[in-house]
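TASK: fixed-backbone design
INPUT:
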């Protein structure tokens, strides 16, 4: 069942989205060689709690932290650790959610650690741009497949692949709601988009093949071929015009 949010619910989601987006801004200020992903987790956790919100991910299906911190070939769901210390040239994806007044926000970015290779920088840029290409089609009356196909087309045109095993999702009272929002598919197919739908659109893009596997920690998803992966996610609201992005508080 896809829930359509009222104006009041969207107003509540704006606050959850703002705290989520600002939590990423907070995290980004601390990304540098030498910091551990556990330190980043604590910084973001404390930020969210200071805003009066609850970290959405903490204890979700037993997840042990407030952010996912996925380095280099890690795609998503990297568990923060004192033993994972960022070094110059790494890329790190941070995914975070905040829950307040009964609603969730969900967003992710991939950041460079110090100076990174041109190829890694291009992967980050293409992943981000694929989100914006996709959401051009996220309007009332459109089809979800229009969004998915636009993301896939842009990514593949640039020589990369979109992960198949993980998808975006509806969001609201629950972090994961219907519908699934794949980053691959066919224009004209899928559910009809309606004003008041709230979606987490989140391209996960691999520099190599799209296959992924899960590490022994049962969470961390990595590329099977060891290639780099990037992630870019925002929570959006469908309107009659262009979608409202609830979690975008860094530069576009
Ligand atoms: N943000 C992720 C998503 O988009 C969820 C993280 S899984 C968790 O679906 F267990 F860490 F919460
Ligand atoms: Co999500």
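OUTPUT:
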């Amino acid at each position: 069942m896809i829930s359509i949010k009222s104006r009041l619910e969207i107003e509540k989601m704006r606050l959850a989205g703002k705290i989520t987006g600002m939590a990423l801004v907070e995290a980004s200020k601390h990304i540098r060689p030498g910091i551990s992903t556990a330190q980043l987790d604590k910084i973001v956790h404390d930020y969210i709690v200071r805003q009066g919100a609850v970290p959405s991910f903490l204890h979700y299906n037993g997840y042990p932290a407030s952010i996912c911190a996925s380095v280099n070939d890690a795609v998503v769901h990297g568990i923060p650790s004192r033993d994972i210390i960022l070094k110059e040239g790494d890329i790190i994806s941070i995914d975070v959610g905040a829950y307040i007044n009964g609603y969730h926000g969900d967003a992710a970015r991939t950041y460079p650690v110090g100076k990174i290779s041109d190829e890694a920088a291009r992967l980050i840029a293409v992943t981000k741009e694929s989100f914006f290409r996709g959401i051009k089609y996220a309007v009332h009356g459109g089809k979800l497949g229009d969004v998915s196909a636009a993301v896939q087309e842009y990514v593949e045109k640039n020589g990369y692949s979109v992960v198949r095993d993980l998808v975006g999702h509806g969001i609201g009272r629950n972090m994961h709601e219907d519908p699934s929002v794949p980053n691959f598919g066919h224009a004209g197919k899928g559910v009809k988009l309606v004003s008041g739908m709230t979606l987490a659109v989140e391209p996960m893009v691999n520099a190599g093949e799209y296959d992924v596997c899960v590490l022994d920690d049962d969470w961390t998803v990595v590329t099977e071929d060891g290639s780099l992966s990037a992630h870019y996610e925002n929570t959006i609201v469908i309107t009659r015009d262009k979608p409202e992005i609830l979690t975008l508080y860094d530069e576009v």
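COMMENT: Residues 89 and 116 are 4 Å apart (CA to CA).
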